[in-house]
Design goal:
Layout lengths: L7 H4 L3 H15 L10 H23 L1 H12 L4 H20 L1 H10 L2 H19 L5 H25 L9 H9 L1 H41 L24 H30 L4 H29 L1 H19 L6 H30 L4 H27 L8 H26 L8
Helix pairs in contact: 3-8, 3-9, 3-10, 4-5, 4-10, 5-8, 5-15, 6-7, 6-8, 6-15, 7-8, 7-10, 8-15, 9-12, 9-14, 10-12, 11-12, 11-14, 11-15, 11-16, 12-13, 12-14, 13-14, 13-16, 15-16
Length: about 425
């Protein structure tokens, strides 16, 4: 059985040599599926457990809007200051996924994937449990925003990358299945959250969510593992010189712009549709359509990347996301175009999340995948605070439908910037249009 651990000389090479070395290694391993050396049921269990973690972490984050709407309409009705503070909770959750990525990636590699995920699950459940006793929005910011956000940040990076370490030929498909849990989580947990809020109230809905997070997460923890783990590595082993490589820097820039752009349409498209005369129920259905499309694309794009190349698929997805905001969004004033926009945006952006860990693996190899992805995720945390807040400022007070053109153009521009960086990164590998990269 071949070890994935680099020797000491490989660790201390320059960033450029390191990246070139890993490209060669990966291209040679693509001819045979080395993952066949591992028990297939172990590999499948890892993918399934990562899927569950994505459902619990990102599914609850996506479903926050349901709880926010209930709190604004029933608990804090007539208190605009408190209602406005609720909007920060979702941003803190989203920020936590990325901000703690560097810490999570390092701890996963130098400590244990399984133990780190268990700690993350405990913190997630604790955040929900403590939130059930809160009475003020600022308290919810600390519990659901900061504490729950920390928990999701600890499990997101390891469970996004663990399945990729078990596969070579089907790495894209395995990663796509794992990260499809984000969209599936939104589809399952959002209606469950609304049901619990209506039947049990805010307090018990949070306590029940803490229970199923702890139970399902603990079971999934048992199966999270990687084929090999170098226990001699420490936090000091990370090669910061990788940032000097143009491909690594371009990928960090891509993630920055994607993080800024991704959540904005989900946050503002419903308000745009309502301003055009649709009901809030229709707008929520259209967002659900985008989530379904996103889940499907993670499987299809992950699968197709194994055949057309990771960077080729990345370029096409980012171009699709740009067009959906610049070309489709401004004209999605009716239900028909709304459905088209939802499907197109969900599909193109969902595929990106299946490709992100594959791009990191192509850059720096699978044995350092968690730490490299974690560093890039922390860069993306800065982008989170640039997306929706800037879009909200563009709309002004009161929000007027004519200003949504500026928001769609702004969001499309962020996706377009990511597209050009991806195109630049691809040309660094090959300038041949039809080559598999």
């Amino acid at each position: 059985m071949v070890s994935e651990t680099h020797n000491d000389s490989a660790i201390h090479t320059t960033a450029k040599d390191l990246l070139s070395y890993n490209d060669t290694t990966l291209s040679e391993s693509d001819s045979t599926d080395n993952s066949l050396e591992f028990p297939k049921y172990t590999r499948y269990a890892v993918v399934a457990s990562c899927f569950v973690f994505q459902v619990l972490s990102c599914g609850l984050q996506i479903s926050w809007g349901v709880q926010q709407e209930y709190l604004a309409a029933n608990v804090y009705k007539g208190e605009p200051g408190k209602i406005k503070m609720l909007s920060y909770i979702g941003t803190l959750m989203y920020f936590g996924i990325y901000f703690w990525g560097m810490l999570a990636g390092w701890l996963a590699e130098v400590w244990s994937y399984r133990k780190l995920c268990f700690v993350g699950i405990v913190i997630m459940a604790l955040g929900q449990l403590l939130a059930s006793f809160c009475k003020e929005p600022w308290q919810l910011c600390l519990t659901e925003g900061v504490i729950f956000g920390l928990g999701t940040g600890l499990v997101f990076s390891p469970t996004t990358t663990a399945s990729a370490r078990w596969f070579t030929q089907r790495r894209g498909l395995a990663t796509g299945i794992a990260v499809s849990g984000v969209g599936i989580g939104g589809l399952i947990i959002a209606p469950l959250t609304e049901f619990l809020l209506r039947r049990t109230g805010v307090e018990w809905s949070l306590r029940i969510s803490a229970i199923y997070i702890m139970v399902l997460g603990s079971i999934a923890c048992y199966f999270v593992r990687v084929p090999f783990q170098d226990k001699t590595r420490t936090l000091r082993n990370f090669d910061w010189r990788a940032f000097g490589d143009r491909r690594f820097a371009a990928n960090a820039g891509i993630v920055f712009f994607v993080a800024a752009a991704y959540i904005t349409p989900y946050a503002f498209l419903p308000e745009f549709w309502v301003s055009k005369g649709m009901s809030s129920q229709t707008a929520s259905v259209l967002i659900a359509v985008a989530n379904v499309s996103s889940s499907v694309s993670r499987l299809i794009i992950g699968f197709s990347a194994d055949y057309i190349g990771v960077l080729n698929a990345l370029v096409l997805n980012l171009l699709g996301a740009s067009l959906s905001c610049l070309v489709l969004w401004p004209f999605a004033t009716g239900v028909g175009m709304g459905v088209v926009t939802s499907i197109f945006y969900g599909f193109s952006t969902g595929g990106y999340w299946a490709l992100a860990p594959l791009v990191a693996a192509k850059l720096c190899g699978v044995d350092r995948l968690a730490s490299v992805s974690g560093v890039i995720s922390t860069v993306a945390a800065v982008g989170v605070w640039m997306g929706s807040p800037v879009a909200d400022a563009m709309l002004g007070e009161p929000h007027h439908s004519s200003y949504f053109v500026a928001v769609s153009t702004y969001t499309g521009g962020l996706w377009l910037a990511a597209f050009f960086l991806a195109l630049f990164s691809r040309t660094l590998y090959s300038k041949k249009v039809l080559s598999k990269v």
